[in-house]
Predict the structure.
Amino acid sequence: SYELTQPLSLSVALGQTASITCGGNNIGSKNVHWYQQKPGQAPVLVIYRDNNRPSGIPERFSGSNSGNTATLTISRAQAGDEADYYCQVWDRYTGVFGGGTKLAVL
Amino acid sequence: EVQLVESGGGVVRPGGPLRLSCAASGFTFDDYGMSWVRQAPGKGLEWVCGINWNGDSTGYADSVKGRFTISRDNAKNFLYLHMYSLRVEDTAFYHCARGASGAGMNWFDPWGRGTLVTVSS
C-alpha cells in the first residue's frame, strides 16, 4: 500500500517560514492536498491539488510537489497557525493520509 | 452554509454493529462523492471508505473491507456507515467529508465535526 511520510513535529519562530514535507514514492505524479486541524476541531482544507488555496485561506499558505516530496509552506507564521497538518493523496481508488505534523509557533 | 452533521456514535461491545449517519445541507448532495474518515483519540487521520455521487461505486480501506458498508440516500441528503463485527481498534471519531466532484476521489471539503465510536467490553 502507498505510504506518506511526514515529520512528527516542527517548530517555527513567530513571523518566520515553516516548511512541512510529505514524502512518497513518485508523489510528484499525484495530486496532493493539505489539511489543518486544531485541537477539538474538524480538519480544514488549506491547499488542494498541490498548490491551490481555497477561498478564505491566507496567501501565506502555499504548496509545491515534485519528485518524491510535497511541501506545505507557511510564511510569516502566526500563533494561530499552531495545529496539526496532514497531507493526502489518492492511490488506486484508496484515500491515503500522511501521519501528520504538529507545528509549534514559538 | 454547507454543513455536515454526524450522528449515531456511542459505546458498543466488540463484535457488535453500529450505524452512523451524516446529514448534509447547504449544497446539492447528489453532485458530490462522499467519504468517511476516522481519527483514533490522539492519533492521525485514516480514510475509511468512499462513495460516488449516485452510490454505484464504493471503495474501502483494507482495515474495514468486508465489515463496513457505505451508502447514501440522495432523496434525504444522508450518508451512512454501517459497521459490523466491530473491533477495539475501530474506536475513533468518525467524520464525514465531501469530495470535490461526483466521483469524490480528490480533496475533502468540508468535514463534519465527527461522532465518537467506542468499542469496549
